[in-house]
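YM 10:42: Tryptophan--tRNA ligase sequence, as discussed on the call
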Amino acid sequence: MDTTQNTQQREVILTGDRATGPLHLGHYVGSLQQRVALQTQHDQTILVADMQGLTDNAHNPSKVSSNILNVVADYLAVGIDPIQTTICLQSQVPALAELTMYYSNLVSIARLERNPTVKNEIQSKGFERSIPAGFLTYPISQAADITGFHATLVPVGDDQLPMLEQTNKIVRKINHLGGKAILKECRPLLSDAPRLPSTDGKNKMSKSMGNAINLGATGKEIRAAVKSMYTDPNHLRIEDPGKVEGNIVFTYLDAFHTDKAYVAELKAYYRHGGLGDGTTKNVLEECLQEMLRPIREKRAMFLDDKAQLVEILKQGSQRSREKTEQVLFDVKGVFGLNLF
Ligand code: TRP
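YM 10:58: structure's back
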C-alpha cells in the first residue's frame, strides 16, 4: 500500500475514534496533532464512532454514550476546528449502517476471522467462546465509514492497516460488480511520531488500562502518573549510571519537551550517573503540567456548554448525511435496488 502523502492536493480525509473513553496523550502525539495540521489543507471528517464502540460494549452502553461529548471536547480543546473539520456522530449518519449491510454480502466470515487486529482483540477481550456478530463485522462497518465519504486518505495507527486492506477489497468488488469506478480506494497516513508507551512501560497507552494520562487529567493526576512512571529499574543510587533507553521518563521528554538540547544534556548526565529519577521526573512533570493546563481548561469550558457540543455534532452529522447519501445511492444501484 502506498503510504506517501501528497500535501499539494486537497484530499478527502476520514478518520475516527471509538467513543469509549476520554482521549489521552497517546492520541495527542499519534493522531490529534496531525489532524490539527491536516485540517487546513484537506477536506477532513472525524467520526465519533459510537456504533463501533458498541460492538464490544453493548452490555455496558453508557461507556460509549457517556464519552461522546468528552471526545468532542477533547477534539476542540486541542485545536480541531469544527468549521474546517466536519465532526460527526456515526450513529446519526444512517447511510453508514446501510452501506455496512450491502458490503456484508461481499465478505466471508473466514476473512473476518483472519483479520489480525480483530483476532488480537477477540483474545484480549475474552470473546473466544462467543463473538458478537457486530464485533466480528466491524471492519465492514469501518469500510462503510471510509467509502461513504469517498475518503482517499485515512490517518490511522498501524493496528488499523488490516481495516484499510479490507476496505480496498470491498471497493474493488463493488467497482467490479458495477463495471465502473463507483468507490475510491484509500491509503493510510501513518503518523511519523513513535507510539507513546504507557506510563508503566508495559503496554500501549490504553483508555481502559489505567496507564494513560488523559488530556483532561488534573494537576494531581499528572503528578501521580509521572511519579509512578517506569524508569531504569537498575538505577538504584543517584550516582550510578542510568539507562535512557526504555526509560519512560525520557521517552516522554523526547515526545513533549520543546528544548531538545536540554533533554540531550539530561540524558548525558543520567547516563553518566549523578542525576536522580526524582529530578528527571520533576522536569517532565513541569513540562506536562504546562502543556496540559490550557488543554484542560479549554476542555472544561467546552464541557460546560454541552448544548454547544451537541450542536457541533448535529451540524457535522447533517453535513455528513448529505455527503454519504449519494454513495449509498450508487452502491444500491450496483445491486439494482434503485427502483425509486
Ligand atoms: N477503528 C478506529 C479505532 O479503533 C475508529 C474508526 C471507526 C475509524 N471508523 C473509522 C478510523 C474510520 C478511521 C476511519 O479508533
